[in-house]
Amino acid sequence: MLAALAREPGPPPSVVDVVEVEPGALDEGGSVRLRMLASTVNPSDLVTISGAYASRTRYPFVPGFEGVGEVVEVGEDAPRELLGRRVLPLGTAGNWQEYKVAPARWCFAVPDDVTTEDACFAYVNPLSALLMVDEHAHAGVRVAAVNGATSAIGGQLRALLDARGIEVIGLTSGATGRRVPSPADWSAVVSTAVPGWGEEVRRLSGGAGVDVAFDCVGGEHAATLLGAIRPGGSLVHYGLLSGRPIPAGSLREHPGRRIHLFRLRDIVHASSREQIQALLDRSYRGIAAGSLRTAVSGARPLREIRRLIAEAPSAAGKLLVTFP
């Protein structure tokens, strides 16, 4: 069968190859075999391949944190009712392959009224957005800033914050060439390519700074964003698109602020199956309502994964990996 393999840390288009591999064996712990139906290319996939998380990533590995598969074989201790069902295999990467062996306990059935395309994007971004807003958009929050405003999760954060009556300032880098789809949905949109953008965010928030900022970039950008937060406010750091950590000493330069590190994987692995299912149910409701739906701008088969990787950063929407 075909699988996309990241050989070593490095530029994703250069270190990922599509190769023939032997199908994995079902173990005795209740595993299932999935025929993958769809996957996607997420920023978290590309950052992990690049080596930003090398201390906790073993190479070579099959990337792909999101995907939908059909259960085609069940192991001895796996529930037979999963056979033939579409499921989300959570908890690990490995969705960039034609067949995947996954523990049955980490497979969550996709409702019949949810399309495979929508289900493919029901996990990483919606659950991250829901959990971060639940924890950090409390009653005292009046103004928030969201970087990566052109991204799918940027739009989802905006929708969830707006539903709570919070003004949202969107930040864009301009590096990908993408534009915010509906600028009028934001209270303001600020380009971080313009010098002094941090001061502009403070001005737009009323002068004191925003109450909370959601950061998927890290690096010096996050340090500047920290300065645009009011004393007592919080930076929620959930991504590393810059490939660089927040500089040491940033909190000393901006006393009174807090940095909260968000890792969906840690939360999911510490949650019960019932808690995860409840979050997925909220995700499906948000997708149906439109607030958590992800725009898809194209699809290519697994054998063209290098092309997908190259196109993903500048694509107007998400790209699907298909398995013809």
From TrEMBL:
Keyword Cell inner membrane: no
One Pfam family matching this protein: ADH_N
Swiss-Prot/TrEMBL keywords: NADP, Oxidoreductase
CDD domains: ETR_like
Domain Enoyl reductase (ER): 14-321
Molecular function terms from GO: NADPH binding; oxidoreductase activity, acting on NAD(P)H
The keyword Cell inner membrane is annotated on this UniProt entry: no
The protein, known as: NADPH:quinone reductase
Organism encoding this protein: Marinactinospora thermotolerans DSM 45154
